[in-house]
Description:
Blueprint: H1 3-19, E1 34-39, H2 46-49, E2 58-63, E3 69-72, E4 75-78, H3 80-88, E5 93-99, H4 103-113, H5 120-139, H6 146-167, E6 176-183, E7 194-200, H7 206-212
Parallel strand pairs: 1-2, 1-5, 5-6
Antiparallel strand pairs: 3-4, 6-7
Amino acid sequence: MNQVVAELLANNAEHADSFRSRFGDVQDAQHPEAVTVCCADSRVLQDHIFGNDDPGRLFTCSNIGNRVVQRTASGEAVSGDVLYPLAHTGTKTAVVVGHTGCGAVTATYDDLTEGLSEPPGIEHCLGLLKPHLEAGVDALPDDVDRPGAINRLVEYNVDRQVEFLRESDDVADDVDVVGVVYDFQDVYSDRRGELQVVNVGGETSVDTLRERYPEIGDRIDRLWEY
Length: 226
């Protein structure tokens, strides 16, 4: 047996022991409080970043670039895995989770500025990000360094995904959509692993958001108010 798989199975045995009694209320149906759209980066521990250990509480989606966009025969649409809980389980909160140093954002930036050659599957994913980030790349400050450019585009990407959800006819008007950035690189503060709120319902002004939500004022920040 592959040693990595063997270790994963051993860890799962411990998980099964501790979670044995936690599925009683959700065996037949789910009504998650929120759908989270995270980057699939291995450093983003999805449910754990919210301290979640409750089956049924969060509907967690992940892909490279924390995208809500899916390409269909009729054009771009909200990805089905994101839309499902909003359409079918009564979920009224969507949280788009970007992260500092995002590889998908970096690759999209490089593709837009220099051109890249990637396998078709990766190229498809970058192709879903490129049209939404192109204007952001063009608007970057001239004096920003490469890491600064990437992390500003991380915020910009979160904004675009929030915007896409809010503007979709498939997403009900009463769904709250929030954008956050997970920081493990000391970009916003030295509290590694902390989430910074960068967008609430399309509002991106730090001053406005802090005034509107004083109870989380110290968790609201941005690198870029373009």
